[in-house]
Structures are given as structure tokens and as C-alpha cells.
What does this fold into?
Amino acid sequence: MSDLRKQMTELATRSRDAARALAKLDTATKNKLLLAMADGLEKNAAAIKAGNAKDLEAGKAAGLSAAMLDRLTLTDKRIADMAKGIREVVALPDPVGANIAEWTRPNGIRIQKKRVPIGVILIIYESRPNVTADAACLCFKTGNAVILRGGSEAIHSNLAIQAAMSVPRLPANSITVVPTTDRAAIDELLELDELINLCIPRGGEGLIRAVVEKSRIPVIKHYKGVCHVFVDRDADFDMAEKIVINAKTQRPGVCNAIETLLVDEKIAGAFLPRIEKALTAKGVEIRRDADWTTEYLDLIIGLRVVKDVEEAIDHITRFGSAHSDAIVTRSKATAEKFLHEVDSSSVFWNASTRLADGGQYGFGAEIGISTDKLHARGPMGLEELTSYKFVVTGTGQIRE
It folds into this structure.
């Protein structure tokens, strides 16, 4: 066994032991420790920023783009926001132990379907060190041990955040940042299916596909966010412009920003000059002959005129990524058709796709967005970090 494989196996084994300890904690204890973690982030802001400064210096030397450096940067406000996110998670109900369903069979046995922790969760992500705090607090609240493998460009920031969250009485190895930047460590971890129960990759399509190809552990994922807004013939133009501009330009480099605008041909003559002017004013490049499957993550948008809602749905079904798609219309019947037939993890009527987010949905910090259909779909909050088991109570019943 190589030294790296041995190191990762020992790390995962400690995490498995931690998961057993975490599963025994009651909600009050978990919440108390989470509040201490939030305080720890704020009290250790200087140390976190010092670690972040090392990463920023190395990032600049490596030629990271301005956008990447911005995602990497931790300011006092961003650290305060991480602490705020933890406190918001504390205020949310603890799903662990909750009854999903309960019933009694004719022979008298009582069956309860209860939420339980998943166990050990491996999260692989890029750039943004705030994910370290978000993922750690969500996993901890749900009784899961977490192994965090952030990008090498954020290693000092992530280790500093872990140290700040390592509060007294926290079960050992509950939150583990992989201490090496060796990419081979990921390959070793992805083979440990007997120790790690779930992998959640967060990042670009290349990262996610690489994880899926190599992992022996179940993976929850979304490859990309090719999201759409369809402006129907019965749309309110003011509302449509507001939604399109927000969905494309409020933060173009994220997965729930739209990449394609679909416009009903019945209103194209009136609406297109208006929306093209508004998009251009925001610096957006409009492509009428686009590659409809491309996730630009930039101020670029594909524009297509479609015959009607049916053709819009067909386009989204063929070219979309089942992430987040919206319709703008005053017609309830048209909206209901769109909402029913578009099979994406989030569908919107008269609202921006940028709202596809755990915080916006009231989940507190989110662990990511899944476009899978099994186990979890859409923004993943606390419930999506649990599994379930059946608890059966009898009075001596046997199977005849």
C-alpha cells in the first residue's frame, strides 16, 4: 500500500468512527456546538484572512483570473456571512430522528420510517473556501462526518477555517480538510466505498465527470447548468425584462444563471428590440446561432425565437441540463403546461432562475444542487443529507 493510500484510508477510518459518535448527539448538543463554530469563525477572522492571503498570493503568481481570485477572497464580510449561515442552520429543524411515516399492520406491528444520518460524506470542490464552512455545518447538523477536499488554490484558507471550527467538545474528526494538495489523494478517497458513504462534487463539468468516472462511492451531481427563460406571448414585458436581466447578469458565472433566452414568435417583433437593448447595456453578447448545449458562465446568451410553448418545452428537453428553467406569462394554463412538462430540478413561473438556491428556498446554507433523480434533486439542504431506516415494534409477532 502506498503512503498516500495509507494516509487517506486512515483519514477515512477516523471519519467513520466520528460518524458513529455524531449519530449519538441530540439536537441541543449539535446546535450548541454549531453556535460555537460560528463564534470561532468570527473570533479567528484574522487567522483565516492570513491563510487566505497566502492562497491569494500563490493564486496571483499562478495567473488565476480576476474572477477566480474574487471567488477565492475572504473578507471580513464573507467570514461574517459564513458565521451567519451556520446560525441560520442552527435555527432550522433537525431532520435526524424525524418520522417520515408511521403505520400499523393488521398483525399489530408498528412500523416507523425515520430519518437517519448518511454516515461519512466526501465533498470535492473548487475555489470558494466558504463552501468549507457551509458543507461542514450542514453535515454536522445532520450527524454526518465530512471529508472536505477543496481546490489546491484554497488549501491554507480551508485549513484555517477547519481550525476555527474545531471547538471544544466537538467529536474528533467530525470535520476533516484533506491536508494534502496532491490530486492523487482524490483518486484514493474515491475507492474507499467501505468507509465513505456518499460523494458530492461541486465545481465545473470537467471535475464532476472525472469524479463520476473514478468513484466507487455513490455520487450526487450536476454536470452543468444550461438554464432557460421562455418569454411567452402572454408575458408582461416589464416583468420579462426584469427576470431575464437578473437571470443572466446578476451573477453570470454560476450554475443557475440562464444561458438561453427563448421568445414566442407572436411577441418577437415587439419584445426583441427591447430585451436586446437591455442585455447589450449590461454588456451581454447575444448569439442567435448558438451552441444550445454550452454553459457559458459569462455575459453571453443564446437567443432563439420559438413557435409557442410546445416548441420551447421541446428545446429545453433536448438541449437543457435539467437544472432550472423559467416561463414568464400571464396565462395560468400555459404556465401549468410548462411547469408540468419541463422535467428540471426547479421550474419557475414569473420568477428568476437565480432563485434556485438552498438559502432562497429556506434551507439555510446548501450543500449543492443536484440534477440527479435518485435520493436528492435540486438545492440540497438538511433533509437531503439524511437517509432513512424502518423501525418495527411488535408484541411477539412472527412470520407464519
